[in-house]
Amino acid sequence: MARRNSDNTRNESTAAYIVSSAVGCAEALSVGVLRLTERTLIEALHTVEDVGSELGSTVVRAARGSIKAAEEIGGDLVEVGKGVSRGIAQPAREVGGEVARLATGLWSNVADASGKAVARVRKAPVKAAGRPSRRKRAAA
């Protein structure tokens, strides 16, 4: 019987060793999986942070580009406005000169009997001959 107890003890110690080893392996495996999951989550958060940062930078660059484009368009509009005003001013000056010339041609200074200059309006051209004037006739 002594031998049987010895075999039993040996079997029990072997079984305890196997169970202890399995528990140790399971513990190491679970800690490894936990660490792997932790690192994966941390790296995913860092990636999301980097992507968000890049998106923010892209939005800022796009906004700045839009502002610069609007500034350039505004400058172009100012230049167009200057060109239009110059284009209108020159013909207006020419028309104004013609109006002044016509006005001075219509008025001529004439001296009266006392020698004093009197402005007199020149008569407008006569109506074309052969056109009867239109008069309203009273209804009878």
Describe the structure.
With 140 residues, the chain is mainly α. It has a domain at 8-80. It has one helix and two strands. It has one helix at 2-106, and strands at 107-111, 117-121. The chain has a two-stranded antiparallel ribbon with strand order 1-2. β1 and β2 form a beta hairpin. The longest helix has 105 residues, at 2-106. It is rod-shaped and about 160 Å long.
Brief digest:
This protein has one helix and two strands; from the N terminus they run αββ.
Helix content: over 70%
Number of helical regions? 1
Distance between the termini: 161 Å
Q: Which series of helices and strands comes N to C?
A: HEE
Compute the number of strand runs: 2
Strand content: 5-15%
Low-pLDDT ranges: none
Task: Spell out the blueprint of helices and strands.
Elements: H1 2-106, E1 107-111, E2 117-121
Antiparallel strand pairs: 1-2
Key words describing this protein structure:
single chain; 140 residues; mainly alpha; two-stranded antiparallel ribbon; 7% strand; rod-shaped
